[in-house]
Amino acid sequence: MSTGFAYVTRDDILKGVKDGAISPDEAIGLLDSIRPTYAKRDPEKDREALASARGNFSMSNFVPVISEFAARGIPVDEILPKENVFTYRAWRALGRQVRKGEKGVSIGVWRPISKETVDEATGEKKRTGRTLCVGATVFHISQTDPIE
Question: Would the pTM count as exceeding 0.70?
């Protein structure tokens, strides 16, 4: 399929299938070629995610997490944030893989951001920081399988 664009998006590929310009089999290959690479296994980042998930999970997230998973049919007494509800990377650090197609619950987490600067007059190093609210997606253990 020639789109005339230097960058092909998922929508371009799906439009090509709809218009009959490419076959569904060709579309699968094209979609695989543009799949994001951020999910590559990085054990160090997985361990950092697990430590962060166990330490930084805000109590304000408990209600939406419990209510969302309960609405999906998971019994409330089996939903234990910080014990069996973690991010994708945290589950990988625990030796589990989130099943393809599973939908997680979006939460807000506070991440510390720090920056080191050097005072030009004195040459002294100074660290400044702040916290930033970022989004994360968490999954229940029932949405995972052990990594073999």
Answer: no
- DSSP string covering the chain, please? ---S-SS--HHHHHHHHHHTSS-HHHHHHHHHHT--STTS--HHHHHHHHHHHHH---GGGHHHHHHHHHHTT--GGG--BTTTEEEHHHHHHTTEEEPTT---EEEEEEEEEEEEEE-TTT--EEEEEEEEEEEEEEEEGGGEEE--
Domain boundaries, the chain: 1-35, 41-146
pLDDT band at 132 (very low <50, low <70, confident <90, very high): confident
